[in-house]
Amino acid sequence: MSSTISAPYVHSFFCLLGENINITWSPDGNTIAVGNKEDLVTFIDTRTHKIKAEEQFNFEVNEISWNKQSNLFFLTNGQGCIHILRYSLHISELSLFLTSMCNNPKKPKNL
Description:
By secondary structure, the protein is mostly beta strands. The chain has a single domain, classed as Beta Barrel (Thrombin, subunit H), CATH 2.40.10.480. Helices cover about 0% and strands about 50% of the residues. It has strands at about 20-25, 30-35, 40-45, 50-55, 60-65, 70-75, 80-90, 95-100. A four-stranded antiparallel sheet has the order 1-2-3-4, with no helix packed on it. It has a four-stranded antiparallel sheet with strand order 5-6-7-8, with no helix packed on it. A hairpin with a 3-residue loop joins strand 6 (about 70-75) and strand 7 (about 80-90). It is globular and about 40 Å long.
């Protein structure tokens, strides 16, 4: 049996600021996060197809990801740090949970 591919179907289309370089879908399926070259991360609600929040970071954002519960958001930067942020789509906010200094040659004594 042969099949044919018809024209692509576009479900949703978003015009975001800047050149997008990262994308990640939250494990609960409710949010897509998109990062651009200007270190702006945009959070899109997949149920309403609307932008819920935009966060501008004052450091180079290299990678973005979620934890399995979709309540923590991870960012890595160009200085070797991992930033872990609490995330809540209901109130559209990110708050710092933990920053790890991965490349610090002098580890703090309590680690």
